[in-house]
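Field: COMPLEX_INPUT
Field: COMPONENT_COUNT = two
Field: RESIDUE_TOTAL = 334
Field: MODE = joint
Values follow.
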Amino acid sequence: MTALATASVVLVAAGATAVVLTRDRLGQAIVLAFYGLLVGLMFLVFQAPDVALSQIAVGAVVQPILVLLALDKLRRNRP
Amino acid sequence: MRRRVAIGALAVIGAGLGWALAGLPSLGHSADRYHLDVVARTVSLRQTANAIAAVTFDFRGIDTLGEEFILFAAVLGVAVVLRTLRREQEELPVEDRFRPTATTELVRAVALLLMGPSVLVGLYVLAHGHLSPGGGFQGGVIVGSALVLAYAAAEYAEVEATHPGRRLEVAEALGAGGFAVIALLGLLIGHSLLENFLPYGANGELLSAGTLPLLNVVVGLAVGAGTVGILRGFFQQALALRERDPPTDPEEPSP
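Field: COMPLEX_OUTPUT
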């Protein structure tokens, strides 16, 4: 594996750990979006641009919106 | 005790996973020949350089047909689960202690400015699916999330006043049904389901690879409408649905 590929894999592992260790729910959604971007970059480094596009579109755009809206709904129903 | 059992089970699973991963061929060297055969033949057989698009929509198009209907079922499931219950009522969002500040003008301006170019980029990715990385799904999600920016650029009530629901349903149906129709046309015009019955054209042209551009369009329609539909359901739940006010008793003094 090249240095770039190793670096992207290490970044993904670090990003996943950061998502787990973020305690604040709202902050965790934002870190999740950035983690989605890191995974998309890893796919790109491993020569899968179609998969990278899908990952960035879904994991860094749609998924955080869903998470944030669900969190808002839960917070509203439990004052 | 339960914690030790959990850690032990995780260690066993981790060891098995490590052993399985160690047995895989190294990066870039596959154990079989299918990928070599496909990549060598996509240009000559289908006049497209994007081997992934050729495999997804032509050689293994039946899997994509199933995936389209998985997405359709997911949108249906979200619509059913997030329906308005009898004990809820729809109400315009008001400023309360959960939403102390309104959307700032800067956010509105940026969302408005981003909508047009994002839709254009999404349509480009969709249309050039057989020429460059991307395709129907990627372009569809980009267009869908660009349209959802409208909820940030304007008020939720204003966007819902345009009644987007019916148009989204039509687009979703056209997308999913269109894929099935093209598949059946392959059976009627050609010899088999999902057969590539349109002329292949020349490699690199926008109209090439037969039914691939058409399939990209219908997949993009279905995915874009599905994404907006799912997010609309979530927006309605988070912003507009409240518990129905309990009926007040006129005898009791109000607290």
